Amino acid sequence: MLDTKLFSGAVVDHAAQERQWVARCRMGDENALSMLIARHRSRLVRTASNLLRDRHEAEDVAQEAFLKGFREINKLREDRAFSGYLYKICVRLCMDRLRLKRAELTEFDSVQPHEGGNVENRVVIAKLLAQLPYELRTTLVLREMEQLSYEEVADVMHVPIGTVRSRLHTARERFRKLWIDEVGE
Amino acid sequence: MNYRLFGCGRYRRLTNEKNDRVLELKEREFMARHRAVCDECRVYESQSSSALNMLRLAAVQEDEIETGLVFEERILRRWRVQSTRESVRYWSPAFLGAAIAGLTVLAALQLVTNRPQVPFSTHPGGEARLERMGEQLPLIEPGRIDRMR
C-alpha cells in the first residue's frame, strides 16, 4: 500500500531496481545495502523527525529501522514490499520510543529545531505534541504531517480504520485545545 | 452571549470531516447557514483550521534532511557487527557439539589405550605379575592375602 505507485516507466524501473537490490541484499551484497540506504534514508529520518521531534533521535531510529529491515529481509515474501516494510518498522520504533517517553518530562529548551521553516512554531508544536498520548500523537502526525490516507495509517499502526477515524477526531480536538491554551487566542 | 444551538455537534463533526473528504453540497449549505448564526462554532472552526495549519507547517521536509556518508557508514558498520554476531550465534551450537564429541572420543581412546592389563602368564612361584605400560608393579602374593584375613 505504501509502495510507490506504478504509473510511469521511470517508476517501474525504480521498483525493478529496488527488487534487484533487495535480492542482492539477501546474498549479503553491501553495495546493494548502500543503495537501499541512500534511497530511503531521507524519508525515514523525515518521518521519525516528525514523530519524535528530535533530529538525533530520529537518525538513531532510522538506523535501527534499517538494521531491523536488513536482518529480516529474508522473511519478506515480496521484494517490492521492502519500502513499506521499512516504513512500518520505523513508525513502530518511533511509537515504542514515544510510549517509553510518555511519563518523562520533555525539556523544551533542548529541542533542536531544524534548519529552515518557522523555528518558533516548530518548538511550540513539539511541546504541544508531547502532551498528547502516543497513539493520538502518532495518528495525528501520520495523517497531517505525513499525509497518509486512513487505510495507510491503519495499516502502519495495525488498528482498524474506525479506530484511526475516532483517534484522529480526538487528537485534532485535543490539539486544538492545547493550541488555544498555548497561543491564548 | 454564547450559547449552543441545535446542530453545533453536527457542525463540529463536519469541521473535522472536511479535512479528510469533500463535503456534499447539503453539508456545505448546512455549515454556511450554521456559521452565519453561531459565533461559537465559527470561532471553533477558525481555531481548528489554524491549529492544523500550524501543525502541517511544522512538518519536516525531505530536503531539510542532511544525512551524509556518516549515517550510511554507521549502519554498515553496525550491520557487519550484527551479521558476525548472528553467524557466531548460528554456528556456536554446532561448534560446541563438535567440541564435546571430540573430547568424548579422546577420553574414550585414552581409556582404551591405558587400561591396566593383567597378563595371564604366571611365574614359576605361582605369583601373578601385574604390568602396566612396561612398568613392573609389585607382585601379588596370595599367601599374604590369606594371612591378612
CATH level-4 homologous superfamily of the largest domain in chain A:
RNA polymerase sigma factor, region 2, helix turn helix motif
Secondary-structure element sequence of chain A?
Answer: HHHHHHHH
- Average pLDDT rating of chain B: 80
Distance between the termini of chain A: 40 Å
What is the CATH third-level topology name of the largest domain in chain A?
A: Rna Polymerase Sigma Factor, Chain: A
Oligomer: heterodimer
Q: Order of strands across the widest beta sheet of chain B?
A: 1-2
Q: Could you spell the SSE succession of chain B in H and E letters? A: HHHHEEH
Radius of gyration of chain B: 47 Å
Q: Runs of chain A with pLDDT <50, length 5+? A: 3-7, 108-116
What portion of residues of chain B is helical? 55-70%
As a percent range, the share of helical residues of chain A equals over 70%
Shape of chain A: elongated
Please count the helical segments of chain B. Answer: 5
* Count of discrete domains of chain A: 2
Give the distance, in angstroms, between the N- and C-terminal Cα atoms of chain B.
123 Å
> What's the CATH class of the largest domain in chain A, please?
Mainly Alpha
Report the uncertain regions of chain B: none
Strand segment count of chain A = 0
How would you portray this structure in words?
The complex is a heterodimer of chains A (185) and B (149). With 185 residues, chain A is an all-alpha fold. Chain A has two domains: 104 residues, Rna Polymerase Sigma Factor, Chain: A (Orthogonal Bundle), CATH 1.10.1740.10; 79 residues, Orthogonal Bundle (Arc Repressor Mutant, subunit A), CATH 1.10.10. Chain A has eight helices and no strands. In chain A, helix 2 packs across helix 3, helix 3 packs across helix 4 and helix 7 packs across helix 8. The longest helix of chain A has 23 residues. By secondary structure, chain B is mostly helical. Chain B has a two-stranded antiparallel sheet with strand order 1-2. In chain B, helix 1 crosses helix 2 and helix 1 runs parallel beside helix 3. The chains are: A mainly alpha (185), B mainly alpha (149). At the A-B interface, helix 2, helix 3, helix 5, helix 6 and helix 8 of A face helix 3 and helix 4 of B.
